[in-house]
Structure formats: C-alpha cells, structure tokens
Target: Citrate synthase
Amino acid sequence: MGESLNKGEMIMTVIKGLEGVVATTSSVSSIIDDTLTYVGYEIDDLAENASFEEVVYLLWHRQLPNAAQLTELKTQLSEHADVPAGILTYLQTTNLTTSHPMSVLRTAVSMLALYDEDAEVMDEKSNYLKAVKLQAKISTLVAAYARIRKGLTPVAPDKELGYAANFLYMLNDRKPNEIEIEAFDKALVLHADHELNASTFTARVCVATLSDVYSGITAAIGALKGPLHGGANENVMKMLMEIGEVEHVDAYIQNALNNKVKIMGFGHRVYRNGDPRAKHLKAMSEQLGIISGERKWYDMSVKIEEIVTSSKDLPPNVDFYSASMYHCLGIEHDLFTPIFAVSRTSGWLAHILEQYENNRLIRPRADYTGPTGQKYVAIEDRA
Ligand SMILES: CC(=O)SCCNC(=O)CCNC(=O)[C@H](O)C(C)(C)COP(=O)(O)OP(=O)(O)OC[C@H]1O[C@@H](n2cnc3c(N)ncnc32)[C@H](O)[C@@H]1OP(=O)(O)O
Ligand SMILES: O=C([O-])CC(=O)C(=O)O
Model:
C-alpha cells in the first residue's frame, strides 16, 4: 500500500490513488461489505421501489419525503426546469461538432451561474435553492444540447411530467411509454450517489475552499468525464460496436486481455465481489433488448462478462450494462455520460451541502521527489 517517510516533524505516508484512505465522514451514502446504501436504505430496495425524485429528497434531507414533501420537491423541480435563453442561444451559435458532450455540459453548467444573481450567496437557504435549480436545469440542458447539435429546436420541459419522463420527452419530442419511463427512472436512481467516488471527492475539494455550488458541480462534471470513471459507459458501447457480433466476442476480449488492455465497465476500486447496481442494469438491458429487437447487445455483454469474470475475476461495474440498456432506449452513445451526470448531480449536491455544513479546507500533502538545491542559471548560460 503506502510507504512511510519521515520528513522533519511530519510522518508522510504515500498511498497511491488514495486507496483505502478515509477522507471525510458522510451520512449520504455508504459502501460496506459490497453493500451500497443511500442514507441506510439498500440500493436494491430503492431501485425496486423509489422514484428518482424520492431519492433526490432522501439524499438532500437524509430522510424519505412524505407525500406533501415529495409534491413540493417535484413542483420546485418543474418550476426551475427552464434554462436561460442566453445559454440556448450560445449553444445554437457555437460550433459543437468538435467538442465532447461532457465538455459542452461542463461549460453550460458553469454558465448557469452567470444567470443566477444568488450564485455567490453563501447561506443554507440559498445553497439549497441552487441545488434545486441545478438539478432541475441539468436535464433540460442535456436534452436541449442533444437536439441543437442536430439542428433541431429544443423541446420545452413539460411541467406535468416527472423527472425521468420529462428528460426523455425533451430529448425525443415524444411522450415516453411506461416501460421507458420506469427503466430510465431506475437508472437515475442507481446512478444517484456513490460515497466518495472521484467526481464527488472533486466536488467536495472544490467547495471546501468555500467556492460556490456551481463551481463544485462544474468541477465534478470534469472528473466524471474520464474513461476510468463515468466516461466508461460510452466506451463500453464503443467496444460493443467494434465487436459487432456475439461470435466475435471471444477473440476480441482474449486479445484485449492478452495485451493488457483494460475492458471498459469492469473492475472497481471499492467493490471486490461485484457492483450491486450491475444486476439491475443487466435485467433492464435484457428487457429493453427484447422489446427493441436489439437483444444482441445484451447477449454480447453477457458473453464478455463470462470471459472477463472467469479469466480475470473482474466483475462488471455500473457502467457495463447501462451502455446496452441506454442504447436500447434509443439514446445516442455520447450522451451516456452526460446522463450519468444528470443523475449524479443529486449526489454531488448532497455532498456539497454536507461539506458546507461542517467545512474544513481539504489540502493533503505531496511527497516531493524532484531535484533539490538547484541554483538559478541565467537564460543565456543554459544548454
Ligand atoms: C462509475 C465508475 O466510475 S465505475 C468504474 C468505471 N471505469 C471502468 O470501467 C474502467 C475500467 N476499469 C478500471 O480502469 C479499473 O478497474 C478502475 C479504474 C475502475 C479501478 O482502478 P484501480 O482500483 O486503480 O485498479 P487498477 O487499475 O490498479 O487495477 C488492478 C489490476 O486489475 C486490472 N484491471 C482493473 N480493471 C481492469 C479492467 N477493466 N480490465 C482489465 N484489467 C483490469 C489492472 O490492469 C490491474 O492489474 P495488474 O495488477 O496486473 O496491473
Ligand atoms: O465509486 C467509484 O469509485 C465509482 C463508481 O462506481 C461511481 O461513482 O458510481
């Protein structure tokens, strides 16, 4: 694990990637013995029974809402779902073809702060309202961007629809059916929070300087984008498309493993015996695969899982079956990670609010390994 170094008065232990380091207390979510809970509720229970809005309330208030509280949150999310016209105009007048959707989202979310006169106000009430606004607007932003880049007009949010249904409606300009809503809502529940993952840690580090909520979410989006984290779901689909057919799986995966290429959607820093979210996404991938007539992506995924788990003992993580599942919902592949961000914003916000509640600057140390005792050399004397 780590190496202890005595530097003057300080004992420094270097733990690469901070593996196993406990950096904060938190009452939002936990992973203990491979069991994931949100505020003590097991993810299996929530995935089967809770709506995304209930989970948002749970994460932000540390209790499930009663009917009136849930209605109030839903009303607030609807009321704030419109995004400023200036941001839509910016997206409509910018060349979006060379940027990854996560980069566009990172910029668009950052721009939201410019339209919020309370962006810099630092009290509990204002920060909570910013959380509501961000959660409400981020799904509208993703859906609007997805249409604008295809030359289509954004679809205004429908205030009568729930969060999951509204996103699919704004994306496709078509009211989704019950199966689509249920699957998408469950995916949002499953992705909502995950203890101190890299993007959540990023958000907490950012706001622990007492920077604002928008900065925390912008920073977190940047961290989620990477293929070792949320960006893996898009890369899983890339791999599935490259493989193309079930009968090509074996050769492709064996070759990748022999060449020490990481298989996207497998492995995890914390889970050793498997990610409890994967089974739910697997079931939805199969169900939607059958309904959409595109079952082959599920079949390929199952074959990949068999090979990777048997040869490397690496179980699939949340990003593996979400890829084929989103594909079968008709979602463009490079929107998979922005959709992850839409859901995870709820967790990031819960952690940001928790960080403000009991803040201390997060500032670890580095073990310096560079040269020492150097003397400045004038530029004309340098080689
Ligand atoms: C929402 C999420 O963020 S879930 C994670 C999404 N990311 C991915 O799916 C990307 C693929 N997976 C990975 O890169 C890793 O498993 C991570 C980033 C998730 C975890 O990383 P770490 O805890 O640092 O594990 P690390 O990368 O050191 O892997 C340990 C060993 O398992 C191997 N390994 C880990 N994941 C994989 C994989 N997906 N495919 C092949 N081998 C793997 C490594 O090569 C390494 O082998 P070695 O000891 O022989 O060198
Ligand atoms: O916890 C992690 O390291 C990554 C992960 O699964 C998530 O963020 O959902």
Q: What stands out?
A: The chain has a mean pLDDT of 96.
